Amino acid sequence: MPDIINLLPENIANQIAAGEVVQRPASVVKELLENSVDAGATHITLIVKEGGKSLIQITDNGKGMSETDARMCFERHATSKIKTADDLFTISTKGFRGEALAAISSVAQVELKTKTPEATAGTLVAIEGGTFVLQEPCSCGNGTSFSVKNLFFNVPARRNFLKDDAVELRHIIDEFERVAMAHCDISFKLISNGNEIYNVLSGSLLQRILGLMGSTLKDKVVAVNEDTPNISINGYVGTPASAKKKRGLQYLFVNNRFIKNPYIEHAIKNAYFQLIPDGDYPAYFLFLTVLPKTIDVNIHPTKTEIKFEDEKTVYAIVKTSVKRALGKNNLAPSIDFEQDPSLEFAYSKTQTATQTPRIEYNPSYNPFKEGAASNKNSDWKTLYEGYINNAPQTPTQEPLFELPKTEVLFDKIFQLQNKYIVTLTTDGLLLIDQQRAHERILYEYYKKSKQQPVHSQQELFPQTVELSSHDAMLIQELSDDLKLLGFDIAPFGKDTVVIQGTPVDLSSLNSVEVLNGLLENYKLNNLDVKLDRHENICRALAQNTSIKYGKELHTDEMKLLVEHLFACEEFSFSPHGKIIYSQISQSDIDKLFKRN
After folding, report:
1. pTM of the entire structure?
2. How far apart are CA 59 and CA 38, in angstroms?
3. How many other C-beta atoms lie within 10 A of the C-beta of residue 389?
4. In 3-state terms, what secondary structure has residue 506?
5. Which helix (H) or strand (E) holds 112?
6. What CATH number does domain 207-343 carry, 3.40.50.150, 3.40.50.720, 3.30.230.10, 3.40.50.20?
7. Residue 253 C-beta-side C-alpha neighbours within 13 Å
8. What is the mean pLDDT of residues 476-483?
9. Which of 145, 262, 415, 574 could link 436 by a cystine bridge, Cβ 3.0 to 4.6 Å?
């Protein structure tokens, strides 16, 4: 039998490695930024064009490379970080496997310019599709500059899988933020298509967080600082009130490396038990420092996943540290009577004086007084006020709507638990979910904005909103659809917009809250399914502005809601595919009481 096993050619092996290391332009950005950090740079500039597809350029003022190292760095598994197998257990740098540059240069046109402080001239190296083109002296400043052009130019199938420029840029921003946040002693700049997106100077961790995420977080985070024999934790966590339905402000670092670890993420969220609703996500920017030998960072090609030697101890320490930080700021009970004594550890002493707990109560409270029961939703906006006059004018049938084998009797209608509308029919009962019903009504109304734009109500006092770079870009991307829906939003400096007008039907609501909620729901919808942009924004707006559970409705409002629901093209399911109403027939009711 002839031999059939052959060694792969070097260029093919590199392209296979590229499939693991270089998944999209953001992968290149991550690897090159980490190289600049490892080089001891204090200033790093990232320039991208067309979402990184045509150009990714990273320039730093690090220590640079010699003429020989400039050529060797593109060889597979060439690294300055590992000399013996034992070094794998004491890794403290970002890159160490020596495969990133070889993989990148095999699927792009790469140009490297580098110079050490003691050298009189720099070195230029050019590689195209894994093929060495030239190496020669050049004039350049101290440090290194990598230019990666036309990514995947020689692998068309891979290039076709890339998303549009806006999506790829958002992924680049994600990687940029993660590296920049972990190194607040380094100044970072990001420029896209000639526009400066970020320019953050070196400073404190809080300054870096606010510089990247927006100054609105300033009063929404509390500090976490704990030192134990096993682990040190520092950073910031969000207040319970700042938790959101969507992920987005969760940053976990181990030894200054961004990681994803569901076990530790669960510990953080568990620290907020009974402080935030189920399904909400608290913001956190936490940095864990452990001995390198107690973790394995080499279990995933992108090094974003690690394994702890003692996960149970780390879990307990993280959970307790976050709970303690919340408790010290009067955001949560600071005493945990259920804590396992075996997991206790010594906290560092603080210089702050002990504060006597204050108990606030209402001396006139009478639990038996009518209306004394607290409604946890009482602070919600009265989203149904004015709906009777401003509701979408869809044609309705008079006076009843025919459902399968039944008719709605509008003179027999009431609200159950401020959540469901119950009405009698000619054949039993009809139960309607008020929030889902309103979402369906608004969704179909907003969908028609392409043919009939929604009227805008100008703000008497325009609202200025500072956004994260992500959301500022998203506003720009959705500007045409927002205009159709009645929003009049104008840019006002970097990452800031002015709300000059809102849909006329929403003029009584807080325009800033409406916009922020719309953006959050839009991003959340993008995670679940692939939607048309206009359909997604209509769904997000309907979801954000619909009446919520806990809202008490008047009889006229309930009747109008039911009328508009059954005038919709689709009245059985909400825009998210959930059942809106359920019928209970007279025969089903009789069966409940049928005697044997």
Report:
1. 0.64
2. 13
3. 7
4. helix
5. strand 109-115
6. 3.30.230.10
7. 25
8. 89
9. 574
